[in-house]
Amino acid sequence: MVMLRYAVYRFFTMLLTLVVVSVLIFVIINLPPGDYLSNQIAELQASGQSAGVQKAEFLRKEYALDRPIWEQYLIWMGFWPGPHGFDGLLQGNYGWSFEFDRPVAEIVGDTLWLTVVVNLAAILFVYAVALPLGVIAAARSRTWIDYTSAFVGYLGLATPNFLLALILFYYGHQYFNLPIGGLMDPSFEGQPMSWDKLKSILVHLIVPTFVIGTSGASAMMQRLRANMLDELGKPYVETAIAKGMSPSRMLTKYPLRVAFNPFVADIGNLLPSMVSGSVLVSVVLGLQTIGPTLLTALKTQDQFLSAFILMFVALLTLIGTMISDILLVMLDPRIRYEGRDA
Amino acid sequence: MTALLSVRDLSIGFGAGESVVKGVSFDVDAGQTLALVGESGSGKTISCRAALRILPRTAQIRSGTITLNDSNGSVDLTRISERQMRDIRGNRVSMIFQEPMRSLSPLHKIGNQVSEVLWLHRGASEAQARKEVLTQFERVGFPDPQRAYDSYPFELSGGMRQRAMIAMAMVARPELLIADEPTTALDVTTQAQVLGLIKELQRETGMALILVTHDLGVVANMAEQVVVMHKGRVMESGAAAPILTSPAHPYTQQLFNAAPCIPDENAVGIPMSDEDMILEMKDVSKTYTMRSSRGWQGERLIHACRGVDLKLARGKTLAIVGESGSGKTTAARIALGAELPDPGGEVLFRTSATEDPITVHHMTRAQRTAFQRKAQMVFQDPYSSLSPRMRIQDAMTEPLEIHNIGTASEQRDKAADMLKRVGLNADMLKRYPHAFSGGQRQRLSIARAMMLDPQLIVCDEPTSALDVSVQEQILTLLENLQDSLNLSYLFISHDLAVVARIADEVAVMRRGLVVEQAPPETLFYNPRHPYTKALIAAQPEPDINRPINLKLVALGAGSPDSWDDAFRLTDSVIPSLVEMEPGHKVRCHV
Question: A341 contacts in B (CB within 8 Å)?
C-alpha cells in the first residue's frame, strides 16, 4: 500500500519534472541568436534567391517561428493551438527537421529503439561485470585478485572508448569473425522484425556493448568494492559470522544488500551519461543510434529535431531515476518507513 | 569434572608486534558465570573472541589451547577447521555484542535474522523456525512477539534490540554464551533489565556465561567467577565474593577505588543559593517538527524539552540526569544558545553578580561574541571532537585566533600553559590527536574549552566514553579547575554515580520534563519520584550484597502513565513541579 502510493506519487512528480525540463530544453536551444530558418533566409537573401526565401518564410509561418518564444513553446508541446490547431508533442507530432527536410519522426524512427537497446545492453553489461567483480575484490581485498581487478579496471577507465572500439573491431573481426559496424546486417535494414534479424542485431551488439560499458563497469566495480569494504567492518557482519554462516552466504545476504543501494541509485544517472558518452563510439562504430543525429542537429540549429532528441533523453533519464527510486524504497525499509511512528 | 570451556596459556598478537594477550588461562564450568574484567586495551575482548575465532584479520593465536567440553564432546577451538568452527558458532557457543544498534542488519527483519540460526544449524523450515523464535521472543520479554518478528531493527529501541540479540544467541540453546559488554551502550534502567533477563534465562537453561565488562557493578550483580585482566595478562582470578570484598592485587584495588558510587548516608544537601546566578533558564521548551522528506506523509511534533526552569549559581555544578531521549542535551544546547527555545522561554546569563543579565537568544553581535568567550563546551566523544588533521597547537589556539586575542607567540604560550594545567606536557603541542589516548584527548578537549578563560562550561557526558580509572582522573581535573578558577559547570550525564560526586544540584529529566530536582545528598537519600528511585536502583554497585532491585527499576522505568497516581503523567495531564522541602522539587499531584 505504502509502495503503491509512493509509486503513484513518484510518477506524478516525474511528469511535473518532465514539463519543467521541456521548458529548459526549449529555452536553451533558442538561446543562441537566430534559428535554422532565419540563418537560411539571410543566406538566400545575400545570394538573391527570392524563391528560396519565400519557401523559408512560408516554413517560418507554418511552424510559428514568427511568434514570441513562449507561444512557440506551447505550440511545440501541443498546449496551444498553432497554425494547424493543437498539433505538438502531446498529439504525437514531433515536428519538422529543416536540415533533413523530413519529419522528425521519420528521421529518428528506428534509431530511437536501437538507442534504447544498445544502452540497455551496456547497462546490463555494467551490472553483470561490476557486481561479481566488486564483491570478490572486496572480500579478497589486498590480495592479487583485488590488485588484478583494480588494474584491469583502471585500464578500462583510462582507455578512450573509441580507441577501444577500433582495437576490438580489428581483433574481433580477425579472430571471432565479428561483424564490423552497424547494428545489423545491411540486408535487414528496413525489414520487419524476424528471428534472423534479431540474431544479427545481437551479434552486432557484442562489440558496442563492451566498448560503451567498460568504463562504466570499472567505475561501478571500484565503487561497489569501496562500499563493501565499509560494510564489512560493521558489527552486524560479526553477528552474522558468530551465527555460523558461511562466508559466501554471509557476504551476499548482509553487506551486499546494504552496499547495493548506491548501485541501484545509479540506474538513473547511467542512462544519460551513456547516451552522451556513446556519441563518439557510435560515429566510429557506425551505429544508428540517436547520438550522432543529435550532434548534427545541434550543430545546424535544427531546433525541432534537437529538442525532440533532448526530450527523449530526458524522458529516459527521468524514467531511470523513477525506477531506481522505487527500487530503493522496495529494497531499503529505512527509506520506506521513514517518519512512521515507531 | 572438566570445565565446559578451558583456556590455557593463550597468547594472541597482531602482525609482527608484541602479543596483546599473554599466557591467559581461565575455566568456565557448566552453568556458571565468569566475568572478564578490565579496562580498554586489557585484552579481555580479544581473549573471549578467540574462543569463536572472531578476530581481526591480522590477529593470530600464537600459542595456547581453548578446549570446549560440552555434551557433543571435546574439541580444541584453536585447532579445528573453519568449517567445523562454523558448526560451533551460534550453535554450541554463541555471542552477543556491545552495540545492539549496529549489530543487527538494518535491512532484514528481526525475525529473519534470528530464525537464520535455526535454518543454519537445525535445518529448520521457515514455519518451524518461526514458531520456535516466537517462543524465544516471548521468553526474552517482547510484549508482542509477532510484531517484533516482522519489525526492522530501527523500529525497536536499544533495549529491545539487545533482547533480540539475546534471543538470537539463545535460540539454538548453546551451552555457552559469550557476552561482550552487552549493556555498555544502554541506559542504566535498560541495563538493569537486560542483566536481569540474562540471569533469568541462565537459570532456566543452565547455560554458562562469559561476561566481558569494565563495570565492577555489573560483575557484582552477575558473576560467580572473576578474571581481572590488565595489559594482556591475568592480574587476579577466582571466586567473585572474595575478590569483590577484599581484592588482593593492587590493580584490582585501584579499579575499586576508581569506581564512583552513589552515597547512601543520611545527609542534608544545601540548596544552591539564589544570590549570584550565572545561568538561568526560564520556562524553556523545545518542540521539533518532524517533517518527512516525502510529500505524502504528514508531520508530527516532538517535545524535546517542556517548561524547563533551572538555575546555576556561580562556581557551582548543576547536573542534568536522564536516559537517552530525555531532553538533557537539548536543554544544554539551548543554554549555550546553539538552539532557539520555543517562544516564551528565556535563558539569562550574567558575567558578574552586579551586571545586568544578557538574554542568550536575543543578543547583539558584540554580546554574542562576548558570550561565546564566557561559555564553552566539552563533548562526549573525545575521539571525534578533535580534528584528526589539526595539530594540537592549532586546535588549541584556534579559539584565540577567532576572537583575535593576543599575538601568535602569546597564543602558543597560553596553549602550553593550558596543557600543563590539565596535566599534559607542553611538548605535546606539535602532535596530532591520534597520538593520544582517550583520557588524554578528553584532557585536550577540556584544555581547548578553557583557552578563552570561560566562566561557564557545559560538559556533555564528558566521561562516559572513558575507562573508570581515567574517568576518575578527569572528574578530579574538573573539580580542581572549578576550585582554582571559580568555574560553573552545567553537567549532562546519565550516570548517577558520577553526578553524585561532582554536582551541587541535580535535575532528573524524563520525556523532556524535570521530574525531580534536589541537591545530590537529598536526592540520593530521599528520592521521591518513582523514576529517580528506578535510576538509583538500577545503578549496579560493586558490592555483592547489594544486587539490583529489579522491581523498583520496573516500577519507575516503564511508561510514565504506569507511574503511581500521585506522579502519573499523560499527554494531556502534566503534574507541576512541587517543592516538597526546601530545595527538593518533585513533579507530582498534590
Answer: 300
pTM: 0.82
**CA–CA distance, A325 with A129 (Å, rounded to integer):** 23
> To the nearest 5 percent, what fractions of chain A are helix, strand and coil?
75, 0, 20
Q: How far apart are CA B100 and CA B159, in angstroms?
A: 8
Contact A243 B300 (CB under 8 A): no
Task: Decide if A331 touches B, using CB distance below 8 A.
Answer: yes
The residue to which cell 537519600 is assigned: B525
Statement: residue B292 has pLDDT above 60 = no
In angstroms, the CA B535 to CA B545 distance is: 19
Same fold, B5-92+175-258 and B277-525: yes
- A10 with A326: CB under 8 angstroms? yes
Residue ranges per structural domain of chain B: 5-92+175-258, 105-173, 277-525, 530-590
B116 and A246 in contact by Cβ < 8 A? no
Could you give the residue ranges of the DSSP H alpha helices within B271-391? Answer: 328-335, 365-374
- Strand-strand pairing, B505-510 and B317-321: parallel
Please check whether residue A58 lies inside any domain of the structure: no
Query: What CATH number corresponds to the domain at position A148?
Result: 1.10.3720.10
Q: Does B52 reach chain A within 8 Å, measured CB to CB? A: yes
Q: Does residue A27 lie in a domain region? A: no
Task: Tell me if A2 is assigned to some domain.
Answer: no
Q: Say yes or no: B143 contacts chain A, CB-CB below 8 A.
A: no
At the fourth CATH level, which superfamily is domain B277-525?
P-loop containing nucleotide triphosphate hydrolases (3.40.50.300)
Percent of chain B surpassing pLDDT 70: 98
Domain topology for B5-92+175-258: Rossmann fold (3.40.50)
B331: its cell numbers: 536543554
Position A122 in a domain: yes
* Domain region containing A309: 105-336
Confirm or reject contact between A11 and chain B (CB < 8 A).
no
CA atoms of B237 and B36, how far apart (whole Å): 9
Query: Residue B489: which pLDDT band, with cuts at 50, 70 and 90?
Result: very high
Mean pLDDT score, B238-265: 87
Contact residues for B95 (Cβ-Cβ < 8 A; gap 6+): A242, B49, B52, B54, B89, B169, B177, B178, B179, B180
Angle between helical axes of B438-450 and B392-402 (0-180°, round to 10): 20
Total domain count, chain A: 1
- Per residue, what are the HEC states of B273-291? CCCCEEEEEEEEEEEEEEE
Distance from CA of A224 to the nearest CA of B (A): 17
